[in-house]
Write a structure and sequence with these properties.
The protein has one domain. The chain is elongated. The termini are far apart. Helix 3 runs antiparallel to helix 4. By secondary structure, the protein is mainly alpha-helical. It has four helices and no strands.
Length: about 80
């Protein structure tokens, strides 16, 4: 993820195919959006925001599916008393 964000290789020197792949990763898209905003002073492109939103939905869905709480043992749950 950090490679695609341009930590090791600047996005400006990446080949076009690698820049496209970078734009499709969550961190690469975020860096691209921040870079565009910083350079032009305008709102980030809809493409970058859409990519981040899609990743947020995917990871949100995965987290709900994989990390289920047991409601009876959830922190702060004092409503139920089992006897």
């Amino acid at each position: 993820m950090r490679f695609f964000a341009g930590v090791w290789l600047s996005r400006e020197v990446m080949p076009p195919a690698l820049q496209t792949a970078s734009d499709l990763t969550p961190l690469g898209s975020a860096v691209h959006a921040i870079d565009i905003s910083k350079r032009t002073g305008q709102f980030p492109s809809a493409e970058s925001l859409l990519v981040m939103a899609v990743w947020a939905v995917i990871f949100g869905w995965l987290s709900v599916r994989m990390f289920k709480w047991e409601y009876d043992r959830a922190p702060g749950n004092v409503d139920r008393v089992h006897g």
